[in-house]
Amino acid sequence: MTRPDVSDERRPQIIEAAIQVFLRRGYRKASMPEIARQAGLSIGGVYWYFKSKDEIVQAIMQQLFQSDLASLNILLDATAPARARVEQFTARYVEIYSEYAWLNPAGIQFYAEAAHDLQVRGFIQEYLAHYRQALVTLIEQGIQRGEFRAADPGDVANVIIGLEEGLSLLGVVDPQGLRWCQALRAGVTLLLDGLSAGLGDLQEG
Fold it and tell me: What is the residue range of 141's domain?
């Protein structure tokens, strides 16, 4: 009899088990044997799908990335004002960040790997390209409708991404000095105020 293919079940099972172990033990103290026990699998069964904790983290981050993009793409087809949609997405981003804040140190380490690991860099760049383009489309809609003043949509998108990523890094190195959610909302609000206030074009170069 042909052995059934359970790969579609096992990977989510292992990822969910890893999340539970990371929440309980923290990323650095968590071990692959603990994840295997949590998943109800042999250690060999876990290694068949994931060679390391880093691979599991990449899979978790891919899920989060896909969720971010799905939420943003839904907003692109909405009829609400562009500013309201950016604010709605920011609120959703804050919810996801708050839920997965425990993953942030591992995520920063994963990003650091991009400096010398072409595979990791390519993975992150692909996500950022889709994410940036979705933000660009949303900003362009606001400009075309007269809600936002003339500005380079790519620059605006990169500022939003920079706020998110920069604050995430700051949250790792100085968590006591940062109110991450409030800071992100404040930064996005200031940016949107500038786009809506007609204060002149963004400086070039």
Answer: 54-196
